[in-house]
Design a protein that fits this description.
alpha+beta; 30% helix; Penicillin-binding protein 2a (Domain 2); 5-stranded antiparallel beta sheet; Beta-lactamase; 7-stranded mixed beta sheet
Length: 657
């Protein structure tokens, strides 16, 4: 009996120990380690997935898209989940444009999962969205509707991730990049994922859109004109800048390097060069601003060849002029014929500090402030770092310092803007995904560099430089006067000047009265004639002519001064009177008084079906319409439809796929 009771007690004790162990384990699992096990269980039956945010778009000043992000899809098919496999496969083949044989092979192989990479656009997958057994995986892709237009400026994304890698895509990355979302997917034992909208954690927030100052039509003119010039002159490369001197807006920026990479670097920002005679105006500005010269002061032209004394020990420096002059020259005449000798002599009236400060105030030697990464500051040494007489003459002739084309454009913009330097900019507006304007760039004056009267005198010097007898006459237009200055400088490469290689430059202000454009054209190492007046100046004239012929280029034709004609003096005029200049007034017919508001006449909406978005935008803008875009790709329809009449200024809704 005692043995039986002992056995029962041992069994009870064993049960008690087992219950205690179970309770202890339960306390450990549910209380002490409960949070860890709950997370592990959650991870096995759910999965968090990052939802990519759409990157913001880049538009030109007229709304033409330059960089867009569009959603595409990969398609997965689970054959065992299809309700009606035959009908479903027919729909899939028709929607995605696939050959039947390719999908039949996948079906015959009895695969549990068929993956179609594509990628396919939203229109193609629309019929498949509600189909059981068809699973869509959305991805975003960046593309550039205008292809290579302004690509060195626009830049691109990193190859392995959707972040800015170069150009404006990099500089504006924080603005364009949206905030990714997050959702929770349910998983079964087999690891299959199921979307659960009710468990979505956070929706993605698209990035902001940016409206640039670039004018696509002016950009096309600049790029085409530069390409034609490089081909004709067999040059190694070149740059073109169009800038609005009143606002600092950069309207067009073209850079090309012959034999370089597929996408050329933006050398308008990154490659400084010695500007040659285009910067003689800034030494003249210092002389005038400090009252060190007047209109009657003259220096001897030395017949085009002069040994300038450099040091007291008798060291000299030869200086020559392309256009020799045997008499005396005023400052205005020195600018007109681009005399190196006269400018070197006039520069001796300046202290090194005065000359340096003036160049620095015009923006040389410092970043322009434009929204572009890796912009070069150029080269401008401090006054104490050179030989005073030697360096002053070099700076006056455009040597011993280097500028970028954008810096040179901004400096000429100050001359056109009555002496006020404006900060160059590439950004006009920032808009949120709904179209609300978050930021609008206002013109930003940097400083007043010279007085208004000095700026007016310098513009008169530029007027004479493109007049008869000046070096830039080939840039002059027939009806509208252009101001400008040529520049030719030997190329400095790898620490030395290269024989028979030159940078040929022309800087223009247009029109002469109430300027609207500053144009910089630089040609690298042209073959044959290399002078700026024979190379860059004609290219400038050609591009200005094309700009005036275009209806969309950012030129306010109402502000352009009317061309003038010579009228013989009347009999009542004083003896020997000069011909009178009178403006030509062009009057439309039927005549409408200036105080009467013009009534726009309805015109037909052009047919743009099947065209690219860019081509459609150009066609609509030429007719005077505005465009509102829905989608990307080829245009499918418009509202109002093609052929319907609407008043210019009307917004035409464009659908594209």
């Amino acid at each position: 009996m005692a043995t039986t009771m002992a056995r029962i007690g041992a069994i009870q004790f064993g049960f008690a120990l087992g219950v205690a162990a179970l309770l202890a384990r339960a306390v450990q699992v549910q209380i002490l380690e409960g949070e860890r096990w709950a997370k592990e269980a959650q991870s096995k039956r759910t999965e968090r997935q990052v939802l990519e945010a759409r990157r913001g778009a880049l538009y030109d000043r007229n709304g033409v898209p330059l960089a867009l992000t569009q959603e595409f899809y990969h398609v997965g098919i689970a054959p065992n989940e299809l309700d009606d496999p035959r009908a479903a496969l027919r729909t899939i083949l028709r929607s995605l444009g696939l050959p039947a044989a390719s999908l039949d092979r996948e079906i015959q192989a009895k695969k549990r999962w068929i993956y179609l990479h594509g990628p396919y656009n939203a229109t193609q997958v629309q019929p498949l969205r509600s189909m059981a057994g068809v699973h869509l995986e959305g991805i975003f892709q960046r593309f550039y509707p205008s292809r290579d237009l302004a690509r060195p400026i626009i830049g691109g994304l990193e190859t392995d991730r959707a972040t800015g890698g170069a150009g404006l895509e990099l500089a504006l990355d924080s603005i364009l990049t949206g905030k990714p979302g997050e959702e929770v997917l349910l998983k079964d034992r087999a690891g299959r994922r199921y979307a659960s909208p009710s468990r979505r954690v956070r929706d993605p927030l698209p990035g902001n859109d940016v409206v640039l100052t670039i004018d696509t039509e002016l950009q096309e003119i600049a790029e085409r004109g530069l390409a034609d010039a490089l081909k004709e002159m067999q040059a190694e490369g070149g740059d073109v800048v169009f800038l609005d001197p009143k606002t600092g807006e950069l309207l067009a920026l073209a850079s090309q390097q012959v034999g370089g990479p597929t996408v050329p670097r933006a050398s308008v920002f990154t490659d400084p060069f010695e500007p040659g005679s285009t910067v003689k105006l800034f030494t003249a500005a210092a002389l005038l601003q400090h009252n060190l010269v007047d209109s009657a002061d003259q220096v001897f032209g030395e017949g085009g060849s002069w040994l300038m004394p450099v040091t007291r020990s008798g060291r000299t420096r030869p200086i020559r002029d392309v256009h020799p002059h045997h008499g005396n020259l005023t400052l205005a005449e020195a600018i007109r014929i681009s005399s190196n000798i006269a400018m070197a002599k006039f520069s001796m009236r300046l202290t090194p500090e005065q000359q340096y400060d003036m160049l620095r105030d015009f923006g040389f030697g410092s970043s322009s402030g434009a929204e572009f990464p890796s912009e070069s500051r150029g080269i401008l040494e401090r006054p104490h770092q050179g030989v005073p007489m030697f360096t002053r003459a070099s700076l006056a002739m455009g040597y011993e310092f280097a500028v970028t084309p954008v810096q040179l454009a901004a400096a000429y913009g100050a001359l056109a803007n009555d002496g006020v330097l404006m900060a160059p900019t590439l950004v006009r507006e920032v808009r949120d995904p709904s179209g609300t304007v978050l930021f609008r760039r206002e013109p930003e004056p940097v400083r007043r560099v010279i007085g208004r009267d000095v700026a007016e005198r310098l513009r008169e010097y530029l007027r004479s430089a493109v007049a008869e007898g000046g070096t830039g006459g080939e840039a002059q237009l027939v009806n509208y006067p252009v101001l400008g200055k040529t520049g030719t400088a030997r190329r400095y490469q790898n620490g030395r000047y290269v024989e028979n290689k030159y940078n040929s430059t022309f800087a223009a202000i247009f029109p002469a009265d109430d300027p609207q454009l500053v144009v910089i054209v630089k040609i690298d190492s042209p073959k044959g004639s290399y002078y700026g007046g024979r190379t860059a100046a004609p290219v400038t004239r050609m591009m200005l002519q094309q700009s005036l012929a275009s209806r969309r280029v950012a030129i306010n034709r109402g502000r352009i001064a009317a061309p003038e004609v010579l009228v013989a003096p009347s009999p009542a005029s004083p003896a020997g009177g000069n011909p009178v200049r009178k403006p030509v007034v062009v009057v439309g017919w039927p005549y409408r008084p200036s105080n009467a508001a013009p009534v726009p006449v309805p015109v037909p909406v052009p047919s743009v079906g099947g065209r690219s978005v860019r081509e459609a935008a150009l066609a609509l803008h030429r007719r005077g319409f505005r465009m509102s875009l829905r989608g990307v790709g080829r245009v499918t329809r418009t509202v109002p439809a093609a052929g319907e009449s609407a008043r210019p200024g009307t917004s035409v809704m464009v659908w594209a796929e």
